[in-house]
Amino acid sequence: SPLIAGQIADKWANTEIILAVCHIMGAALLLLSSRISTFRNLFLSMGAYTFFYAATIPLTFSLLFTHIGAITQG
Fold it and tell me: CA-to-CA distance for 27 and 16, rounded, in angstroms?
């Protein structure tokens, strides 16, 4: 998922939009996970959550390093 999110951010959408979508989907999946009573469904929902969460890590670093470069030069 980090590789897919990076490719989408580079070619088709802004990083901020992808981060927002991933965090909103992650929040919805965590809310859903709190209401699940069977292990199988909980395992699947938490697996889906990690898919969205893993995509945010490299995108956040990319965004951070872009802004740090602008701060140190200006």
Answer: 16
